[in-house]
Amino acid sequence: MDLERLKTPCALVDLDRLEANARGMAARAEALGVRLRPHVKTHKCVEIAERQVAPSFRGVTVSTLAEAHAFADGGFTDLTWAFPLPPDRADEALDLARRVDALHLTVDHEASVDALERACRRRGAPASVLLEVDCGDRRAGVDPSTDRALRLATRIADADALAFRGLLTHGGHAYGARNRDEIAPVAAAERDVVVRLATRLREAGIDVPEVSVGSTPTMRVVDRLDGVTEIRPGNYVLFDAFQAAIGSCALEEVAISILATVVGAYPEQRKVIVNAGAIALSTDPGPTHVAPDCGFGVVATADGRTLHDDLRVFALSQEHGQIRGDGVTDRFRIGDRLRVLPNHACVAAAQHDRLFAVRDDAVVETWRPVRGW
Ligand SMILES: Cc1ncc(COP(=O)(O)O)c(C=O)c1O
Questions:
Q1: Which residues does residue 2 pair with via DSSP β-bridges, in sequence order?
Q2: Which residues contact residue 202 at a Cβ distance below 8 angstroms, ignoring those fewer than 6 apart?
Q3: Distance CA 94, CA 96 (A)
Q4: Residue ranges of the domains in the chain?
Q5: Closest residue CA from atom 15 of ligand 1
Q6: pTM over 0.85
Q7: What CATH number has the domain spanning 3-10+249-367?
């Protein structure tokens, strides 16, 4: 199908770029000597994950149980739910675990461990458990420097119904970096913090089979991963304007864009408006710490080949996107189409019920991301 026939706004994925991004991270994982367990929350599409995993290991990371169900249905047999276990979903998770080779659950609190153990008793089923560790992101995870980390790991390892799988951390604070030089120490800390804790646990007699790290910026920059068993980047397969701003990728590697139509032109305000607003692009504020005026994405031509990065998507309302810049009304007329490379691929993609895979200006596949939780 021709691009012109698509209704706007809609989400496009450049298939050549996506496949190159997938190959690039797979090669990095191999060079670093770790397994790649891509985080599929970025796109929630089985067809994309197929391009990310190696035939030898069909493991993925999910952020919701809805993703876990859909990827199990899609033949992905080893799942990590890298999200603090909601006690009210523990039974459902244990039932799903019976359908796959492995479903690893994540906890960072005694109360979650208690709830999981009760669910195991109710279902008569065991659970594989990862302990989430805070490597500096300050979002979730136990503080690795405390005795609590050791106590929690011991508690899990000693529980009859639970199998202690190991440690999981996410260097999300890499998104606060301004360039690759600032990402590097975050990547080193992400690795060192869990590897040190794994050593402490092993010294205490606890088996730690898995040491799992990863965000896209840290995995693009890290130079060695000794002691780590697997990495979980996700965003890298699409990339976005934020990643480009912090030096994690080039704008030319960004595979996702939102196709929109110009619906208003206001030369006196140096402005056009398009039909991609907050719902189509998301209101992710973007890399304001690097580019305070970044707006809500980077503008490109309808074919995606030319960037207009001097233009700014400066305001969004539900369905309106406002784009300002010198000569914008000469460059784009009412009825013209343009693309916006979103600030945050994962949140933008999640706004759409279909992703259109594009190669050589034609839609070659249509994917339906998993919806709900
Ligand atoms: C626990 C966890 N692991 C891995 C990732 C993947 O990181 P990224 O989106 O930077 O690729 C995320 C993303 O938020 C995450 O929350």
A1: 362
A2: 208
A3: 5
A4: 3-10+249-367, 33-237
A5: 170
A6: yes
A7: 2.40.37.20
